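Chain A, query sequence.
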Amino acid sequence: MPVGVLVAPVIPALTDHEIPSVLAAAKAAGAGWAGTEILRLPLTVAPIFRQWLERTVPEKKEKILGRIRALRGGKLNDPRFGKRMTGEGIFAEQISQMFEVACRKAGFAASGPELSTAAFRRPEGRQLGLGF
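Chain A, predicted structure.
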């Protein structure tokens, strides 16, 4: 069975340095491809995350929030399609490049397997017709 790994959420200035070791471990466990996403803080998630930072790593709180804002155009969240999972700017580019290099070093394929519908069979019975 083809298996991949999603390294997510990457928290800038907190977990980004762990990307290479996570990918190496995933490859050793049999993963064939990898993806990543940077932390998103929509709506009510942001205050909960800030509280968590205050409790767990208060000395890094402002640096982490600053990096997230740098990735999100000065905000803690950017809902725009194409930007919400990756961010933009120098820190987003650094994380992306680190991820790409770590994938190559670990030996991951450039992408996951090609999807196929060859084994798909339409279910029979009343369920699809809803029996009306």
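The beta strands are 4-10, 33-38. The helical segments are 19-28, 45-56, 61-71, 90-106.
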